């Protein structure tokens, strides 16, 4: 499928999964705009995509900042005249039981897993609505299907992300805007699946709930058995 003359904004494009998605769009001929946080991250992505990077445009933006994202969208429209795709890839992970994770951790994960999608979608939708064309892509998780235990903040925030995608699609569809929700499982090859993940920090509560530790261990073992020995899930 050719995406020549199409323009995509990909949040989380400098992340591990983004390094699989961005080259796919560039390879199909699209122009790709990637908001990024650090120069090192966008430089690493440029190195990864190689010669096709001439159609890769990076802009340093905090995707939780509504005003900053609005300026990004205005800049993309001024330069390219259109936005055909918004891919919401940005996200993160923190493990821990429900009561051993403090409220700051809950707030941080909801801000990371929900707010960027809310902010970016709100910024892009008016343009797509006027054109009565566009595609919203949400890369969520299998959380709504599996609801694994002992991952409270991650499960709740990703469930909110997926629900946001669904409820937005009902409205967007009335204006000719398509929605795709991708629910990948654990991706292990070439992504370092959530390499910066942190754990619960309330050590006192963790100690009080230590009797659940054998169940947590069994859950981790079950996750490992999702793949055949030696198998590596390829994000492509």
Q: How far is the N terminus from the C terminus?
A: 16 Å
Rg, nearest Å? 19 Å
- Pick out the low-confidence regions: 190-196
**Going across the major beta sheet, what is the strand order?**
3-2-1-4-5-6
List the topology elements.
Layout lengths: L6 E5 L6 H10 L3 E6 L2 H11 L6 E5 L5 H15 L4 E4 L14 H11 L1 H17 L3 E5 L3 H4 L5 H21 L5 E5 L20 H6 L4 H12 L12
Parallel strand pairs: 1-2, 1-4, 2-3, 4-5, 5-6
Helix pairs in contact: 3-5, 4-7
Outline the structure in words:
- The structure is a single chain.
- The chain is 45% helix and 13% strand.
- It contains 9 helices and 6 strands.
- A 6-stranded parallel sheet has the order 3-2-1-4-5-6, sandwiched between helices.
- Residues 190-196 have low confidence and may be disordered.
Summarize the structure.
The chain is an alpha/beta fold.
Please describe the structure with a list of short key phrases separated by commas or semicolons.
globular, 6 strands, 9 helices, 45% helix, 236 residues, 6-stranded parallel beta sheet, alpha/beta
